[in-house]
Write a structure and sequence with these properties.
By secondary structure, the protein is of the alpha/beta class. It has six helices and five strands. It is elongated.
Length: 173
Amino acid sequence: MNTDGDKPSILIVDDDKNNLFVLNDILESEYTIYTAKSGQNALKIASSLNPDLILLDIIMPDMSGFDVLKRMKEINELKETPVIFITGLASVEDEARGFTLGAADYITKPCHNTSVKVRVNNQLKSVMQRRVIERNAMLDALTGIPNRRSHDKRLTMEWADAVREQRPLSLIM
């Protein structure tokens, strides 16, 4: 999660400057906003910033939003990041394809300010709830210290680092 203070972060991806401006204007008071004008640029920005939510247009010149979502699902750090398609494609088939690929929601243009705010807020609530559950799952309920699951995860990470950097790893229990 990349936040500025306590504000959740959103990456808006659209090749149309007007759409970027409108969405930014709707959301900037409550969220930290990042923008990208192409699919390739979106993948780079998302990989480096790990935003809490991505708003993604489907029709773009270099790579469709469908292709961007497919590639995101292959990147470990991004596969759980919710994506809301905001697009002019209004057919049931396009919407179904978006959901099949793993989109969290689908909004057709022109979109209404209130609808965008509510849907974005709902997705971000789910993200925050999932993170609380994941964090609590790593702690012992009685003592509040890291549990076995946390230990195993940390050991796996340290082992991978030791192998990659060809250094020894010691463990004291």
